[in-house]
Design brief:
Blueprint (H helix, E strand, L loop, with lengths): L13 H14 L1 H22 L7 H33 L17 H21 L1 H10 L3 H7 L4 H11 L4 H20 L4 H26 L1
Helix pairs in contact: 1-9, 2-3, 2-9, 3-4, 3-6, 3-9, 4-5, 4-6, 4-7, 5-8, 6-7, 8-9
Length: about 220
C-alpha cells in the first residue's frame, strides 16, 4: 500500500510562515525569481535617486517630485501585483507573470489610494513616535493582499487588515525582525544569496496572510 505524505499546511506563526514560505519558494522558484527581478527593476529608479548625493537644487527637487509620482502611480501597482503573485504561489494556484500588471487595467485607483493611505498612516505613526509606526506597519501588513485578493477598497482593506492581524501583531513584528538576519545571511552567501532571501521573506509574509485568511474563513 502506497503511503502519501501529507503536504505541509501554512500556520499563522513565525516559524510556520517561514517554513511554509521556504517550501513554496522552491516549488515555484523560477516564477518567483522572475517576479523578484521585475519588482527590483521597477524599484531601481527610486533607489538611484534616493542614494544620490546631489544638492537640493531646483532640478534635483523636480526629479524627486517625479520619483515620488513614479513610486505612487507606477511602482506601487507593480509591487501590489508582485504580492499577488507570491500569494498565488503559496496557495499553489496557477498564475502568469503578466498578471503582475493587471492593476494598470483594473483596480488601479484602489491600489494607488490604498498604498497612499497605508503609507500616510504608518508615516504619521513614525513621526509622532517610532513604536506606534511599527505597530501600525504590522497591523496594516495585509492591505496589499486584501486589495489584490479580495478586490477591497482602500478604507475597507485597512479596516480588514486591522481586524485580521488582531492577535498576530507580535508575530508579524517577529517576522520583520527575523527578515533582517535572513537578508544579512543571504548577502554574506556570495551576495547572490540575497536573491533567495528576498524571495523567502516575501513568500513567508504571503504565507502568514494565507494562514490567517484560512483560519478566519474556517471559523
Amino acid at each position: 500500500m502506497e503511503i502519501i505524505k501529507a503536504e505541509r499546511r501554512p500556520e499563522a506563526t513565525i516559524t510556520g510562515s517561514y517554513g511554509y514560505g521556504w517550501q513554496q519558494m522552491w516549488k515555484h522558484f523560477l516564477y518567483l525569481f522572475l517576479v523578484m527581478i521585475i519588482v527590483g527593476i521597477a524599484e531601481s529608479p527610486i533607489s538611484i535617486i534616493s542614494d544620490s548625493d546631489a544638492e537640493n537644487s531646483p532640478g534635483r527637487i523636480i526629479v524627486q517630485i517625479l520619483a515620488a509620482a513614479y513610486w505612487l502611480l507606477v511602482f506601487s501597482v507593480i509591487k501590489y501585483g508582485g504580492d499577488l503573485m507570491y500569494l498565488r504561489a503559496v496557495r499553489n494556484q496557477k498564475f502568469e507573470i503578466g498578471e503582475m500588471f493587471d492593476g494598470f487595467k483594473k483596480n488601479y485607483i484602489n491600489i494607488i489610494l490604498a498604498n497612499l493611505l497605508t503609507f500616510s498612516i504608518i508615516g504619521l505613526g513614525f513621526v509622532f513616535l517610532i513604536v506606534p509606526g511599527i505597530i501600525l506597519a504590522c497591523r496594516l501588513a495585509f492591505v496589499s493582499y486584501l486589495v489584490m485578493d479580495k478586490d477591497m477598497e482602500p478604507v475597507a482593506a485597512v479596516e480588514k487588515s486591522w481586524e485580521m492581524t488582531r492577535g498576530h501583531g507580535w508575530r508579524l513584528f517577529g517576522m520583520g525582525l527575523l527578515a533582517i538576519p535572513v537578508a544579512i545571511g543571504g548577502f554574506l552567501c556570495f551576495i547572490v544569496g540575497i536573491i533567495f532571501s528576498i524571495i523567502w521573506i516575501s513568500a513567508a509574509f504571503a504565507s502568514m496572510y494565507h494562514a490567517v485568511d484560512l483560519s478566519k474563513n474556517s471559523n
